[in-house]
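User: Quick sanity check before I run a bigger batch. Here is a single chain. Can you write out its predicted 3D structure?
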Amino acid sequence: MIPMSSPIRVLHVDDNPDFLETSATVLERTASDLEVVTATSPDAGLDVLEREAIDCIVSDYRMPETDGLAFLDTVRESYPDVPFVLFTGCGSERIASRAISAGITDYLRKGGEGTYDRLVDRIRQAVTERETQRFGEVVGHPPMQLVDRITDALMAFDRKWRFTYVNEAAEEMFDESADELLEERIWDLYPGATETAFYDHYQEALAEGEPRTIEQYFEPWDRWYREHIYPSESGLSVVTHDITDSKHSQQQVERAQLHLSEFTDEAGPTLRETLDSLRESLEAVRRGETDDLPRSAFTEFNRAETLASYLLTLAECTDAEVDSHWIDLPSMVHDCWENIDPRNAVLCIDMGQSIRADRTQLRRLLEILLHNAVDHGSTTDGQNGRAGPDPVRVTAGTTDDGFYIADDGPGIPAGDREKVFEPGYSTAADGNGFGLCVVQQVANVHGWDVWVTESEDGGARFLVCGVDVEP
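Assistant: Done. Predicted structure follows.
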């Protein structure tokens, strides 16, 4: 089997359905290139193997009907080349020795810090080694018989770096026909590539005669690629898979985790202080010192509730998967407006499109932006640069690739517009300074950009762009 495109399909067999569900979820969250299929018995696992293409099997050892090594023996009768990783809590030197003798691909004990990271590494290594061996057998027999149905780009070079083969996917990647590429030196056609890590890896692989797998960013095309590089006496064969989307998802998760860490560092003391104050008020009532809670207790409760909801939203943003649906944006804005306290403010909805987004996260983003527009544009305290009883006018509108929330308040000085997204930054005396941090992270996890500019009326205008807008 010649290496196919991601994801890596893993069959996970374990008789404990709760553990199986948790394990499958953690594996897919740990590695976006894994797709896990589960089975609660060896027989069910064999049924999966008959129906579906599987790249690697991960199996428990001790199961009611049989054990993992007996399952391995049955698998090897029909699927001799599929990598098989024994993942068990019943670890011992005797079991490990039996597993190695039985031809297990790898052995890993359950439990302990970093277990799933190690399991992902073992799966990837096993699949890569199997691909290297199988593909090496194919390219080692001239003429090279490669099929164009493979979605990865396949290309081969002689030892003078001239193209000797490209499949259709490679033609699409280079945006050149085979006739234009064959017999041409890759470094002459793409001289900028000699300044990249790809050039070094190709040269080293050919010189050392050892296959390798790399993941690298190719700056001239602004793309990420995973490549399997196979040297031979006649030259070099390369299988290239575009992993840009999965890398972006991984980077979004990493940014979300960083934001969550920064948020907890900044918000933790504030939340603790808020809860301590609320506890003192409740203790005063319990001791009989007062019959009623002070108004400040309700304020503290609302503040704690808000911070907790922000923390939950940021935690949800660490998931690489966004549960996107087409959402009627005007209706969503109207519902969010009803959920906040608009006080002395009016809303003008100047939009008619639907957008694709996670419903819960979009609601949180809109509520924060609308609440922010009301709070920072409010004239009720006379401290925001406006005079008179006129209500704040908040406008929700759309652009070609997004939407905006604007107000006619005093606006945000140009020098402060980047700072407003920092955790804990607020210009309001009673503000918590964390809402816009959440807005930015919700935008990031959707692949959107969020900016603050000046509105037509001189107030603040928060623009979200890069949104999938329904035509």
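The longest helix spans residues 244-286.

User: Great, the batch can go ahead then.
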